[in-house]
Design goal:
Radius of gyration of chain A: 31 Å
Number of helices of chain A: 36
Number of domains of chain B: 1
Structural class of chain B: mainly alpha
Shape of chain A: globular
Family (chain B): Belongs to the cornichon family.
Largest interface: A-B, 14 and 16 residues
Helix content of chain A: 40-55%
Largest sheet of chain B: none
Shape of chain B: elongated
Oligomer: heterodimer
Number of strands of chain A: 29
Radius of gyration of chain B: 19 Å
Structural class of chain A: alpha+beta
Order of helices and strands of chain B: HHHHH
Number of helices of chain B: 5
Distance between the termini of chain B: 16 Å
InterPro entries (chain B): Cornichon
Protein name (chain B): Protein cornichon homolog 1
Largest sheet of chain A: 8 strands, mixed
Number of strands of chain B: 0
Distance between the termini of chain A: 34 Å
Organism (chain B): Liquidambar formosana (Formosan gum)
Strand content of chain B: under 5%
Strand content of chain A: 5-15%
Membrane topology (chain B): Multi-pass membrane protein
Chain lengths: 1060, 153
């Protein structure tokens, strides 16, 4: 179950409810519990029995997690406590009894109602119901509950909507909630000194209560705050509904003071604990994740020598379901474009500058204008031929579903600038009684968030260009030797039929080593004619008209050329590369038309303009202020060329193959400013990398491409996009020039408020991409989205979209590595996460007295993990030795263009155990989604008896456990399965198992066709390959000097608290 | 004393030129901001005048030193130093690919420089008048004129 239950009270809530019920009457509760999970039930039961308070404290610690348990013991002075640790459930019981008694008594009457209420009605009801329960406690028990009540009550109205969203998590938390709450109280006291804990415990309680009384007096305040309070809950929302009961019960039992925290805190504690127990019971971890983690044992400092992180690593949230998009807004604004085209970092647009400054995360959007749509959801094409495209006179917004028609249909009001525009006669339609146009059904532009307009001639500065592919191929010794030239020639030849834009497609070639070779491929020739230019200082283009030819006319010449290309240079012994002059020559040939330039480069440019040094990876430079210079282009020639390419509508894709340093930093600049991308095949060997190059080149050549495009994003008054991040060049302050763009490119942008206060209720965004399609039609693709303006910071956090935030973070960090040290870039990521969590904490921690807990909004639960993964990603990780400079730069260029989903997968790849699937035999491939569960990326997940596949979207690593049955290995690898895995390539063997595996890989590859995942085989314990391919990529582990996940969370938590 | 006047007149000319170059760059940048100019044109226009400006400014500064106006020289040193730094780091030219990300800082830098130049402009004007007055009225007041010692800083 996903955390995002959103508006479905029914499904998501159910678990919650069951959980909630447990709280009230013991009998009742137990029932639901069992339903949810046997383990929990046992726990609960165990709970009541044990009275001792001391155990409780121990519990709290233990709560952190089973794994942690042993360490936790270290914490505790008393051995008994430790003993509890392992068996968490028992301790609570001791505690509970007293509580339980009171608890049961009063709650019984109320809770039943709650339990029933919420399930039937939905979240809001649940809350309201809940509030009543609270009251009884108050009367019976003490003042503390009273204080609670106000908050919850107030929250009820507000919270109800949010609740629905997050229900599922809450459910999980609920059961534990009582525990935690009880614990929490002790915990607070704990920090100071352990022994006192128990004794102090009662005292603590008493003290707490006084404070509560205070609360009531403050009630008014509480109420005011309530909204804010809710927001926290909503964040967890799932937890919310159930939470109320939990808090109440705990309160009664012991801590009055605790009350508010329970919802939040309780979940935390619960999670960790529950997970330990739950695993058996079965609820997926995903559901368990709540708002926060229980950090009760964080006050380690007081115990010298202890290294207990106090947190259960299993309980930490992990995106094992992949990218979860917040979809509540798709429901709220059904006419918005799909999130694959546009994602905002938060769907609550802040209403004021001060809110922005408190929202410590980037505020912006990630746009992928040409994202591939599944069948049936293609963007409709609208032709306004007679009318001309309908746009707002003032702000030039395109007509979209959010414009309103008035004055009987004669005028329309622009949703972005509110200007009243006239409706032209051809576009006029009457309005019906409700003010809708009667022809609404036939107007996709008025009902769909994404449409494509056919642009008339006003949108052209020249006739639409034909698709043009130009190839610049390195034929020096190493390029030929590696087999690159051959594969490239074969692939291009096989793609000739599928190049888009037949019959207008143009094509041309240049090859180079120390000289530049041009090819005349005029259709009247039977053989291509080669011309060699060796004057590198003064490049000229011979026969400028015949170097670029129409593919359909010169097809046979082109084919002859491609067939003979590998053999033409097979004896070439030239080691030099006149890359710069060749680039200039290509530019001269292409500048008439523009198009796409594919560069296949193998040798470091050594001749003529633009030659590069082996500046290499100098160990000594790392850590100094000059470090970043390695990652920026060395020679301004490349930037200048990139700018010129963009100016003449030429997009550049770089394919780099060298086994030595090739200065991707400089070469990649060409792709970066022309909307292209960098493919890097280190140490290319055709035997190994053939498939990958073939697939990726074929995709590059055949995917739908938008030519000579410009993109602009407009937004409502008061908001402005200020900076853009990705592979493109800005032509004016807000116009992105994209000579060739396709579905695999995404762009990120940040926005700011122009005015101090936004007065509108909704902000609209409109992405418009003006391009020439391969068919030669000028088109405008328009995506429109609306987002509400919010005045509350909690609301912003609740509507945050982790995927978009991580995407922006990633781009900002990579940009930072171009002007700062790697260390600084990593620190900036961390500090922004810390600041955001601190701000969030400040929102709620004070009123909830969360003490040592780490709290974060449900929507951002994966943010710390992705932050960690980002710091360990190739462009940012470590220092000199941790990644080759070229690899770093290539990965940086790639990540700057990746759409959100691809990026998240790269940051947190999937790790799946497949041996069971392979051996079981019966399972259908189709249901593999159900069979395969993604595992946490930690070495612990690897069982030496298993076979695992690691998939980060760019490659597969298949890991053979040491004790994997030899049968499997033999079935998969053939007879030489025991040999050296570097030389074994995975191919289909004549066995069911092998066929299954290949089918599986195929399936995985199909899920993301933009890159080809090459398969690497690794055997456990086979160093250094295992380390290189897999172990360094297990982001949750401690590798080298980096943090593991648990440590990272701990570190963030400490920092959050330090300066809170 | 006629040389003095001529010299200050040279300073005056150089200063006017610096002011003009600087203003031109600022105007180009604001044109870019309001989309009257594309980045390519902006880069070629500004980059064409950057080096002349640096050289002119260097001459301006060195002339002060040669003439012995060490205090005026000291006033010009910050700009000279900054120019040298930019040049040594190869950051003096506008990078056409990243114009928009550096736009505001470039503009700020030039406006501050404009302020400096305006400051020199006033001083130079004062000195021209002072030199002129001294030159034409020397006979009347002779070497004892208190103004000469005040202005001769």
């Amino acid at each position: 179950m996903k955390p995002m239950g959103t508006e479905n009270p029914g499904r998501p809530n159910f678990p919650a409810r069951s959980a909630a019920t447990p709280f009230a009457p013991a009998s009742q509760t137990s029932m639901p519990f069992l339903s949810s999970g046997p383990v929990v039930g046992s726990e609960a039961s165990a709970f009541r029995p044990t009275p001792p308070t001391a155990p409780q404290t121990s519990m709290a610690f233990l709560s952190s997690g089973p794994g942690v348990g042993s360490e936790a013991s270290g914490f505790r002075p008393s051995p008994p406590a430790r003993s509890y640790g392992p068996s968490v459930p028992p301790p609570p019981p001791s505690y509970v009894p007293p509580v339980g008694g009171s608890f049961q008594r009063f709650p019984t009457p109320q809770f039943p109602s709650t339990a029933q209420g919420p399930p039937t009605r939905g979240p809001p009801v649940g809350q309201s119901v809940l509030s009543p329960p609270m009251q009884p406690p108050v009367g019976q028990v003490q003042s503390p509950p009273v204080s609670l009540r106000p908050q919850q009550l107030s929250s009820v109205p507000m919270g109800s909507p949010p609740q629905s969203v997050n229900f599922p998590p809450s459910s999980v938390n609920v059961p534990q909630a009582p525990l935690d709450s009880s614990f929490s109280a002790p915990r607070q006291t704990l920090h100071p000194s352990f022994p006192p804990l128990e004794s102090s415990y009662p005292a603590a309680r008493t003290t707490l209560q006084p404070s509560f009384p205070g609360y009531p007096s403050r009630q008014s305040n509480a109420v005011l705050q309530a909204p804010s309070v809710q927001s926290p809950f909503p964040a967890h929302q799932g937890g919310y509904a159930p939470a109320p009961p939990a808090p109440s019960s705990p309160f009664l039992a012991h801590q009055g003071g605790y009350v508010p925290p329970p919802p939040v805190a309780a979940p935390l504690g619960l999670h960790s604990r529950e997970q330990m127990q739950y695993p058996g019971s079965g609820p997926p971890i995903g559901t368990i994740q709540g708002l926060a983690e229980d950090f009760n044992s964080l006050s380690l400092g007081s115990i010298p020598g202890s290294i207990d992180p106090g947190l259960d690593s299993k309980a930490l949230p992990r995106p094992l379901d992949g990218d979860v998009e917040p979809n509540s807004f798709a429901e709220m604004y059904p006419m918005n474009c799909n999130s694959r085209y546009l994602r905002l970092t938060t769907f609550g647009i802040p209403s004021s500058q001060s809110l922005i400054s408190r929202w410590q995360l980037p505020l912006g959007a990630v746009v992928c204008p040409l994202a591939e749509a599944p069948d049936g959801e293609e963007v409709p094409i609208v032709n306004f031929a007679p009318t001309g495209i309908i746009r707002c006179r003032r702000c030039r917004t395109y007509v979209n579903p959010y414009v309103t028609f008035t004055d009987g249909g004669r005028k329309w009001r622009c949703n972005i600038c509110a200007l009243l525009n006239d409706v032209s006669g051809d576009y006029f339609a009457h309005l019906d009684a409700s003010g809708r146009r009667i022809d609404l059904d036939q107007r996709p532009e008025l009902t769909k968030g994404s449409v494509e307009f056919v642009a008339p001639t006003e949108y052209m500065v020249r006739p639409p260009m034909p698709p043009l592919y130009f190839f610049l191929i390195d034929v020096s010794l190493s390029a030929v030797r590696s087999g690159m030239v051959e594969i490239v020639a074969q692939t291009i030849r096989s793609c000739l039929d599928e190049l888009p834009g037949f019959p207008r497609t143009q094509i041309g070639f240049i090859t180079f080593d120390s000289t530049i070779h041009f090819y005349n491929m005029k259709s009247s020739l039977t053989q291509p004619q080669m011309m060699v230019v060796s004057d590198l200082d003064d490049i000229f283009v011979p026969l400028p008209d015949d170097l670029l030819v129409n593919l359909s006319e010169s097809r046979s010449v082109v084919e002859t050329f491609l067939d003979s290309l590998p053999s033409m240079f097979q004896d070439n012994v030239n080691l030099e590369s006149a890359f710069g002059p060749a680039l200039k020559a290509a530019f001269m040939v292409m500048s008439q038309l523009g198009g796409k330039l594919l560069i296949f480069q193998n040798t470091l440019p050594s001749l003529g303009v633009g030659r590069l040094r082996l500046r290499g990876d100098d160990l000594r430079v790392y850590g100094t202020d000059k470090e970043h210079a390695l990652r920026i282009p060395e020679d301004p020639f490349y930037k200048q060329m990139a700018a010129d390419f963009t100016k003449y509508q030429i997009g550049v894709n770089i394919y780099a193959f060298s086994d030595k340093y090739t200065d991707i930093a400089s070469l990649g600049t060409l792709a970066k400013y022309t909307g292209g991308q960098v493919y890097y095949y280190p140490s290319f060997q055709s035997a190994i990398h053939k498939e990958r190059l073939r697939h990726e080149l074929a995709r590059d050549l055949t995917r739908e491409t938008a030519w000579e495009a410009v993109m602009r994003i407009r937004c409502g008054k008061g908001v402005r996009f200020t900076s853009y991040h990705g592979n493109f060049m800005l032509r004016s302050t807000d116009l992105l020039a994209l000579p060739a763009v396709d579905c695999d490119k995404a762009f990120a942008m940040q926005m700011s408020l122009e005015e101090t206060l936004l007065t509108t209720q909704t902000v609209y965004f409109q992405v418009a991409l003006l391009y020439t399609s391969s068919s030669g039609e000028r088109r405008i693709r328009v995506h429109t989205a609306a987002a509400p303006v919010v005045t509350d910071l909690g609301e912003m956090y609740r509507h945050a979209d982790t995927g978009a935030i991580v995407s922006l973070f990633c781009r900002l960090a990579i940009e930072k590595t171009l002007s700062h040290k790697l260390e600084d870039a990593r620190n900036s990521v961390q500090s922004r996460i810390v600041k955001a969590l601190r701000e969030y904490r400040n929102l709620y921690a004070v009123q909830h007295r969360l003490g040592g807990r780490m709290i974060y909004p449900e929507s951002l639960k994966f943010l710390p993990l992705y932050g960690l993964a980002l710091c360990k990603s190739t462009p940012l990780r470590g220092g000199y030795a941790d990644a080759q400079l070229d690899e770093r730069c290539a990965a940086g260029y790639t990540m700057m263009a990746l759409p959100v989903k691809g990026l998240l997968k790269l940051l947190y790849p999937s790790l799946i155990r497949i041996d069971e699937y392979l051996t079981k035999g019966s399972a259908q491939v189709d249901e593999f989604k159900n069979i395969f569960k993604r595992l946490p990326l930690a070495a612990e997940s690897l069982d030496s008896r298993g076979l695992y596949i690691y998939d980060d979207g760019f490659r597969f690593v298949i890991w053979f456990g040491r004790m994997l049955s030899p049968d499997i290995a033999m079935n998969l690898l053939g007879v030489d399965f025991a040999g050296d895995l570097t030389r074994v390539s995975l191919c289909e063997q004549d066995s069911e198992m092998s066929r299954k595996l290949m089918g599986l890989l195929k399936k995985f590859r199909e899920s993301d066709p933009s890159y080809y995942q090459l398969c690497h085989l690794v055997r456990q314990g086979e160093q250094p390959r295992e380390g290189f391919f897999l172990l360094t990529n297990l982001v949750e582990d401690q590798i080298g000097g980096t943090n593991g996940y648990a440590d990272w969370i701990l570190q963030i938590h400490r920092q959050v608290q330090q300066t809170a | 004393m006629a040389w003095e006047l001529i010299l200050w007149f040279i300073f005056f000319i150089i200063n006017i030129a610096l002011l003009a170059l600087n203003l031109y760059q600022i105007i180009c940048l604001s044109d870019l901001e309001s989309d009257y100019l594309n980045p390519y044109e902006l880069a070629s226009r500004i980059n064409a005048v950057v080096l002349p400006e640096f050289i002119l400014q260097g001459v301006f500064s060195v002339l002060f030193l040669l003439k012995g106006h060490w205090f005026m020289f000291l006033l010009t040193v910050p700009i000279t130093y900054y120019h040298t730094m930019l040049y040594m780091n190869r950051k003096h030219l506008i990078d056409v690919t990243e114009v928009f990300s550096v736009l505001s800082s470039q503009k700020k830098y030039r406006i501050i420089k404009l302020g400096f130049y305006l400051f020199f402009f006033t001083i130079v004007i004062v000195r021209i008048f002072a030199a002129g007055i001294l030159f034409f009225n020397r006979s009347e007041f002779g070497e004892l004129d208190i103004r000469s010692s005040v202005l001769e800083f």
